[in-house]
Task: structure prediction
Amino acid sequence: MRRRREVGLPVMKGWHGRPKEMDQKSKLPRWRMSLQLLRRYMFIRFWRRSVTRSFCIYARRYNQQTNNQRTKEESSGRKALSYGRKAVVWSLKRRKRSGAPSYVWTNSGRADYKKFWERPRQSDHSRAVLESGREALGRVALATWWDWNGGSSLFFWRWPNSHIRWAREGQPHFVTGELPSFVEAQRKSATEESQALVQEKVNKVRRRMYIAPGLVLSLTHMFDVPKPPDD
Result:
């Protein structure tokens, strides 16, 4: 392991007595640099793990509630997944890339795991839970401490039981008449600068997957408002 002085970093001697001094590399006070490192390498990882664990617990309980009468095949699949003794066996056959030995599926173990994986996805509600949870966890993986770089989604499994389905699928709306159909194309901005700013905002929404390709029944227009340079 190389020392801090060898890689161009200041030594840690007397660091705790000078928390307000500026770090030469990051140009930040040392106490702020410490918080930044904690957020990036510790706090954000702990939060991601906590969110993922909470969804896994909810999904497991949801599957148990929807499948009150579990069959013998499902029970064997859960046992194989939990303990891994009958599902896989140790093989002396070497891997192609690393050359290390590995585990291989048994015939019964692969079949049991396949049944265990497919059974919760046979119901429409179960598939909705898994797909919505996968989308939320994917956004969590792309998030930073200060921003949702991959967009944000509701953690529906943390809502009260009376509102979980609404948080997952949206609140139902009742329509008394026909919905409008507007398909006129968007007009460009007056100047190239404003057009570039509008396009950047639209691309930001697309990158965060709030707008996805699909069937379009109606469009909506947007407009830009001039702002002073010091705003």
